[in-house]
Amino acid sequence: MQKAFFSYLFSxxxxxxxxxxxxKYVVLSTGFDASNxxxxxxxSLKDTWAALPDKDDAADKIxxxxxxxxxxxxxxxxxxxxxxxxxxxxxQNQYIWNADVHDEAxxxxxxxxxxxxQATAFNGSARVYAPRYRxxxxxxxxxxNAEDKKQALDVAYADVKAAFEYYLQHWNQGRPIxxxxxxxxxxxxxxxxKDFFDGKPLQHQLVEAYLIGIGTAPDTFEFIKPSQxxxxxxxxxxxxxxxxxxxxxxxxDGLSTAVCTNPLSWKLNxxxxxxxxxxxxxxxKFKFVKNAADAQVHQGILWxxxxxxxxxxxxxxxxxxxxxxxLFWMNIRENVALRVENYLNQQTK
Length: 349
Prior knowledge:
Layout: H1 2-16, E1 49-51, E2 77-82, H2 104-117, E3 126-131, H3 146-172, E4 177-182, H4 184-196, E5 206-212, E6 236-237, E7 241-243, H5 251-255, E8 281-283, E9 287-289, E10 296-298, E11 301-304, H6 329-347
Parallel strand pairs: 2-3, 2-4, 4-5, 5-6, 7-11
Antiparallel strand pairs: 1-3, 8-9, 10-11
């Protein structure tokens, strides 16, 4: 019994980004080489999308025992979802700084992690479009060589831009749009919002931007502002999750001045919100977890007590980055529904 319990706990830590020992990462020993990048994706092919409304994919799933269903068939809005960095390991082929969208092993990891656990939060009220893209290696965010980082992220953004343009031309047809992202996806989503939405005609179709897992300053955009309540539309929300009383070493690199939305109240104040207001998260084996976590904004970051799961007394995790969406899955889902409804009501006035 004890062995089974610790196996469960270890699996929980892996799923939610906990650390059993010190955090480790792969160092890329060669600089970015523009002549050695994977071929650009063709977004007319379904294989270059992790999720599409008419494709059987992980974004269609519903957590075990969750009291909801996939609503994409009747959804009145779309979500363009940009997944986080999954390319974190030592390169397995000739492509070093950016991943190949035809890498089957990596695609399986993307689909069974972020698409399953994160993109599904949006399938109740929106058709899910999630492009595969030549994601920059995790080391791009750690290197001191700013040019290597820039070039790797430029490759990734070129794909995101191309995918969004294909979506607009072939599928949108004037429908309301949600932009949702996590981590590297948020870095790219901010560029996308500036290029296509901020002060441009397409901003009128923006329901909300969920810019999660990367510090986002209140003045990131000229016309798209931080939302201050659950009901507002046309703005953005953002948060980064850590253990209560913990401040990361990189706090002053953008988090200290970041917008922080409490995903249990959708307010920007620092009021504590108990787990009773948490409608449910997603846990091990894609299982629905009631009252998964509490939440409190603290000077630009989101603090939580240990998640209310089996074995919580053994959790020592300080950085809950990978669980930014998992822990608040149902609250995000209900908030998307509310904002979509409010947006549509505003259009009929």
